[in-house]
Amino acid sequence: MQRLASLLASLCALCGQASALTLTAPLDYQVTQRTTRTAGKFLVTGQFAADERATSLEARLTGPGASDLWQPIDFKAGADAFRAELDAPAGGWFRLEVRTLAAGKTLAETNVAHVGIGEVFVIAGQSNSANHGEEKQQTKTGLVTTFDGKSWRLANDPQPGASGGGGSFLPPFGDALAERLKVPVGIVSTGVGATSVREWLPAGARFPNPPTLLGNVTQLPSGEWECKGRIYTNFVSRVKQIGPRGFRAVLWHQGESDANQRDATRTLPGPLYTQFLTQLIRDSRRELGWDAPWFVAQVSYHVPGDEASPDIRAAQASLWKSGLTLEGPDSDALKGDLRERGGKGVHFSGPGLRAHAAKWVEKVVPWVESQLANR
């Protein structure tokens, strides 16, 4: 009897293995960029152990605004993997359920607890685009998430994928967008503290004078300097992970490390700033295969008494005046107790992070609404 029980247990284990069903996309807390004001599509991928009994594969969304109806997913009989797009309303959080069936009976089922169709933004630049603020921020709506390259989670600071271990403007920025646009917001952070635009260029890009920090550049025998391309490669690969046209826009906040450097030979002239940021935008667009929108902020503030570089500010403004980019906020205007250490530092205090977020919202929300006006 004991041997028979063991045999039956083994058979049950094999049956359980045969019906196993797992999802590889979407991930829990993933936000997918909507395509119209009211709708979008989820990419649904997964595997299940080959089972000749399976005659259909179905998925459904449950939650506010979802239909709760099962939708068929195409798959080949005897296959052990599937890939499909699932129509979905804008909004979330939804629960995604997937099941395999035979003769109307469920063989296996699985689910993802939180998925949403909303707005996704890529954040790039230096420390004030990353986690160098004085006070960590948290999402209050619970509708703002962040992607580290492998998984999604609520966007409580510090943001994965960006330098620093402190606060950012992103949780309050995302909360404000979620409240105004009525959809979840996804964030992909790539900012690197203390970087010059020169350090963001593709490998092999050359320039006459080096940035203040030299870890991402190399001096050539000719005396010129060359970018190693590590930051650019990371940026492009991170963006590609969220799929073709997988985000609404890049928000670029950088300029402090090019403006008014103590060693004047390392200050970047405005025309070269324009040239290099133009190269970064055009090269990354070419690699992504579409003209991804960029917002460029006006950024050059250091400390009281060194509060702006007219040259760098003019270079940043020239990019949106030419139509290459969109106009970002003027963060140089955030001073006093909105900066760290009682107004003495370059990074933002807690109130400064929230003020910075509000300035981005002022620029981003009207533009997003204009993009959706006829869709």
Descriptive notes:
This protein is of the alpha/beta class and 375 residues long. It has two domains: 18-116, Immunoglobulins (Immunoglobulin-like, Sandwich), CATH 2.60.40; 119-372, SGNH hydrolase (Rossmann fold). The protein has seven helices and 17 strands. The chain has helices spanning 2-18, 170-181, 230-240, 270-288, 310-321, 340-343, 350-372; strands spanning 21-25, 30-33, 39-48, 56-62, 71-72, 81-89, 91-102, 105-125, 144-147, 152-154, 185-189, 206-207, 217-219, 225-227, 249-253, 294-298, 326-330. Strand 4 and strand 5 form a beta hairpin. The chain is elongated, with a radius of gyration of 24 Å. Residues 1-19 have low confidence and may be disordered.
Structural features:
7 helices, 375 residues, 3-stranded antiparallel sheet, alpha/beta, single chain, Rossmann fold, 11-stranded mixed sheet, Immunoglobulin-like, disordered N terminus
**Radius of gyration (Å):** 24 Å
Main pleated sheet:
11 strands, mixed
Highest-level CATH class of the largest domain: Alpha Beta
Structural class from helices and strands? alpha/beta
- Examine the secondary-structure arrangement and name the CATH architecture of the largest domain: 3-Layer(aba) Sandwich
* Cα shape: elongated
Runs with pLDDT <50, length 5+? Answer: 1-19
First-last Cα distance:
67 Å
Strand content: 25-35%
CATH topology of the largest domain: Rossmann fold
Number of helices: 7
Helix content: 25-40%
Q: What's the SSE pattern?
A: HEEEEEEEEEEHEEEEHEHEHEHH
Chain-wise SSE layout:
Elements: H1 2-18, E1 21-25, E2 30-33, E3 39-48, E4 56-62, E5 71-72, E6 81-89, E7 91-102, E8 105-125, E9 144-147, E10 152-154, H2 170-181, E11 185-189, E12 206-207, E13 217-219, E14 225-227, H3 230-240, E15 249-253, H4 270-288, E16 294-298, H5 310-321, E17 326-330, H6 340-343, H7 350-372
Parallel strand pairs: 2-8, 8-11, 8-15, 9-11, 15-16, 16-17
Antiparallel strand pairs: 1-3, 3-6, 4-5, 4-7, 7-8, 9-10, 12-14, 13-14
